[in-house]
Amino acid sequence: MKFAVRNTWVCQRGKGPEALDGFKIVAENYRSMGVGCRLYVDISGAMDVVAMELEVDSLDGYFTGQRQFYADMDEATKGLIGSINGDTASGSRVLYEIIDY
């Protein structure tokens, strides 16, 4: 069974492009670990919205990895995450089961 994890962030007004630059680095890191990852920007609804979708094999593995990532961050990564957090106003996460047919 596979799952899609879609994280969506509403950026501070006008900060979407800056946040997207940070998310590109995060997405590349996921890809280097073999995790399918896509980035989206909303062009039809609210402005300055960025979404990142991951394809994972296990929700337990995903959340364990997230906790470990935040516990073991080096200073450069803390700076990147701090920058992204400064560019965003709110966020949400939706989990989907991927149905093979």
Short description:
By secondary structure, this protein is α+β, with helices and mostly antiparallel strands. It contains three helices and four strands.
CATH class wording: Alpha Beta
Measured as a percent range, the helix fraction is: 40-55%
Strand residues, percent: 25-35%
Order of helices and strands: EHEEHHE
- Total count of helical runs of at least 4 residues: 3
**DSSP summary, beta strand count:** 4
- Strand adjacency order, main sheet: 2-3-1-4
Topology:
Blueprint: E1 2-11, H1 16-32, E2 36-41, E3 49-56, H2 59-71, H3 75-87, E4 88-98
Antiparallel strand pairs: 1-3, 1-4, 2-3
Helix pairs in contact: 1-3
Task: Describe this protein's structure.
This protein has 101 residues and is of the alpha+beta class. It has one domain: 2-Layer Sandwich (Alpha-Beta Plaits). It contains three helices and four strands. Strands 2-3-1-4 form a four-stranded antiparallel beta sheet. Helix 1 packs across helix 3 (75-87). The longest helix is centred in the N-terminal third of the chain and has 17 residues, at 16-32. The radius of gyration is 14 Å and the shape is globular.
Fill in the keyword field for this structure.
Alpha-Beta Plaits; alpha+beta; 4-stranded antiparallel sheet; 101 residues; globular; single chain; 35% strand
